[in-house]
Amino acid sequence: MVLNMDINNITDYLQNKINSKIVSVKYLGGGSYGKVYKCEDENGRIFAVKLFLNDGMAYKESLSLQTIAKSCVLKIPEVYGLFLKSQGSPADFIYFEYIDGKDAFSTSLKKPFIPKKIKNDFVDAVTDALLSIHTAKSDKFGPIENPVYDSWLEYYRPFSDKILHDAENAAQSGKLNKNVYDAMVQAYDRFDSIFSDKVEEACLIHGDLNVMNIIVDKKFKPIAIIDPLNSVYGDREYDLFQLMNMTGNRFDLYETYKRKFKTSDKCDLKCAFYRLYNEVMCGLNTNTPKFILDSCVKYMKSQLKLL
Predict the structure, then answer these.
(1) Cβ atoms of 254 and 261 closer than 8 Å
(2) How far apart are CA 89 and CA 13, in angstroms?
(3) What is the arithmetic mean of pLDDT over 183-198?
(4) What digits encode the pLDDT tens for the residues 18-58?
(5) Which residues contact 70 (CB under 8 A, 6 or more apart)?
(6) What is the rounded average pLDDT for all residues in the chain?
(7) Which one-letter DSSP state was computed for residue 186?
(8) Which residues contact 66 (CB under 8 A, 6 or more apart)?
(9) Rounded to an integer, what distance in angstroms lies between the CA atom of residue 209 and that of residue 190?
(10) Among 23, 28, 49, 48, residue whose Cα is nearest residue 99
(11) For 179-198, what is the mean pLDDT?
(12) pLDDT tens profile 223-266
């Protein structure tokens, strides 16, 4: 865990590294994984600083941003520097390019009506950008910093095993609703059927591309993608369930991707599994709201009925 999350200590440390006094700091937002600030230095240069709560996440996000930027057709913030506690920093943090815009989620909540053309252009831009990320490939599957697995399931099955094990402990201690855990078990019992189709390509995955991580301008045009999480080289359909989260269904992002680009016959089923296990994994660390987990359980059960 981070030893010191005081932004003043961070900016004091950073300004000595960049040889420029930081004169303005504004908190932009954050959650259980970290906090983001907008900063301006004495030369008028504006940039962002993100502090991370968990060890290893700063390095992982820095690498993910730089890797995804090589293929994505939308802007990915440029990383200017990575600083780690192990190297003397008060906390693990990155400082990087500030993107002047708002996230699509909060913006869409303020826009009860979005003209059809603007909406369609938004959907096309987002789905095309996601596919452009997926065009980056690796010979092996696994985390982007070390893809060493010969198949997707060689990596993903142990990954999901750990999530289920942690969920079992949480259910026994009362930290996870038993109905959620039961749905996870029901899905896991059908694992071989759900994942019967071999994943042929190890595609680059953003890992958290929901509408909160799409930056739009005042005309609701997507201008950047931010905040990759647990990026891997894996099944590109592992990226798709996030398109349904938040207000994603309002824009039909998931179904549009499926219409535009070929997906597997069991895409819906796999995405139900990915979504449930991912939200439980995150929820054990961040207290995912009950209504989100309930939605995941409902969708998972509806897909299992189709097997």
Answers:
(1) no
(2) 7
(3) 97
(4) 999 999 999 998 876 889 999 999 999 999 999 998 889 99
(5) 136
(6) 94
(7) H
(8) 79
(9) 27
(10) 48
(11) 97
(12) 999 999 989 999 999 999 999 988 888 999 999 999 999 999 99
CA quadruple 226, 230, 233, 237: dihedral positive or negative?
A: negative
The total of other beta-carbon atoms located within 10 Å of residue 241's CB is 26
Residue linked to tokens 């520097």 = 81
Q: What is the dihedral of CA 160, 166, 169, 175, to 10 degrees?
A: -110
Helices (H), 110-213: 116-134, 152-172, 178-188, 191-194
* Cα dist from 81 to 84, 92, 94, 289, whole Å: 10, 11, 6, 34
Q: What is the pTM of this model?
A: 0.94
Pairing of strands 202-204, 137-138: antiparallel
How buried is 189 (Cβ within 10 angstroms: 0-12 exposed, 13-18 middle, 19+ buried)?
A: exposed
Sheet containing 93-97: which strands, arranged edge to edge?
Answer: 22-30, 34-41, 46-52, 93-97, 79-83
